[in-house]
């Protein structure tokens, strides 16, 4: 079993990379152009960067000015950057031939050396759970929290999402013709737990849009955090299966959840909803964007 090594998104594009984000992954050694001349970002709101600021009018995909693919592009200044991520996207929206297919928009005639992918939350009922259990955007039409959690668990217990993720990644690799670009890889980002589930101060607080919204009890916070961890485990499992089909890893899992410690909702001494706390690294519905127009990446 290969030792676990440190991996940073900042290192993409370096020569002779050794990448392993999970114990047991084969180490990947290859030559690629340095620096990387182009990359592409696929996926959902976590990649689109909703709530990270906009310049001018917000587009239909609610892409943020400070989304992490945007920051990487500003830092690395690649020759080409294709920002295809869209808030609300599912695997169907990424797949070739799907509604609003991101693969259909992917231009492989320009330099592309690696891809980023954030997907799965919408396939597995994240929005339904957040709506029913936390914000209740549609009041009683939002359904019950218990039903939303139960439905999400049913989806998680099925193999369908893993199969769909494998199809998405293989379609990306096939379109780029990976056999002619042995350095090309897809980095799949996981999700971060929303809450500090151990504090007492949030038990009687609510993010509900309507009066008398659901309380952020430790039980609810724990259940929602467990859901996120289960989704990440699904992503890991699917990535293992994909890499088993190659002699070298083609897919990398980036688990950044630990970096959010201290930056979740319901942290100690925080009265939620706190719309002004910039140390919370999640977008709070109804709050200001975390980045202002005069704080654009240079």
From TrEMBL:
<dbReference type="InterPro" id="IPR037460">
    <property type="entry name" value="SEST-like"/>
</dbReference>
<dbReference type="GO" id="GO:0016788">
    <property type="term" value="F:hydrolase activity, acting on ester bonds"/>
</dbReference>
<dbReference type="InterPro" id="IPR013830">
    <property type="entry name" value="SGNH_hydro"/>
</dbReference>
<dbReference type="Pfam" id="PF13472">
    <property type="entry name" value="Lipase_GDSL_2"/>
</dbReference>
<dbReference type="GO" id="GO:0006629">
    <property type="term" value="P:lipid metabolic process"/>
</dbReference>
<dbReference type="InterPro" id="IPR036514">
    <property type="entry name" value="SGNH_hydro_sf"/>
</dbReference>
<feature type="domain" description="SGNH hydrolase-type esterase">
    <location>
        <begin position="41"/>
        <end position="168"/>
    </location>
</feature>
<protein>
    <recommendedName>
        <fullName>SGNH hydrolase-type esterase domain-containing protein</fullName>
    </recommendedName>
</protein>
């Amino acid at each position: 079993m290969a030792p676990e090594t440190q991996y940073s998104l900042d290192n993409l594009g370096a020569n002779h990379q050794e990448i392993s984000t999970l114990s047991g992954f084969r180490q990947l050694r290859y030559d690629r152009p340095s620096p990387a001349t182009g990359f592409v970002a696929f996926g959902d709101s976590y990649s689109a960067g909703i709530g990270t600021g906009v310049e001018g009018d917000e587009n239909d995909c609610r892409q943020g000015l400070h989304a992490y693919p945007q920051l990487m592009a500003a830092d690395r200044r690649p020759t080409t950057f294709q920002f295809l991520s869209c808030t609300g996207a599912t695997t169907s929206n990424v797949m070739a031939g799907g509604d609003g297919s991101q693969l259909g928009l992917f231009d492989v005639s320009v330099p592309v050396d690696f891809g980023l992918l954030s997907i799965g939350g919408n396939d597995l009922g994240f929005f339904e759970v957040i709506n029913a259990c936390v914000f209740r955007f549609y009041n009683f039409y939002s359904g019950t929290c218990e039903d939303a959690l139960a439905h999400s668990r049913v989806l998680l217990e099925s193999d369908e999402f893993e199969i769909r993720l494998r199809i998405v990644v293989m379609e990306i690799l096939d379109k780029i013709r990976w056999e002619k670009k042995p350095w090309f890889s897809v980095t799949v980002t996981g999700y971060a737990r929303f809450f500090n589930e151990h504090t007492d101060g949030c038990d009687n607080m609510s993010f509900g849009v309507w009066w008398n919204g659901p309380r952020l009890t430790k039980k609810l916070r724990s259940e929602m955090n467990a859901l996120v961890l289960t989704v990440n485990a699904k992503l890991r499992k699917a990535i293992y299966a994909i890499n088993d089909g190659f002699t070298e890893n083609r897919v990398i899992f980036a688990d950044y959840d630990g970096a959010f410690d201290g930056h979740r909702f319901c942290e100690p001494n925080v009265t939620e909803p706190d719309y002004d706390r910039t140390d919370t690294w999640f977008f709070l519905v109804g709050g200001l964007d975390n980045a202002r127009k005069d704080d654009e990446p240079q």
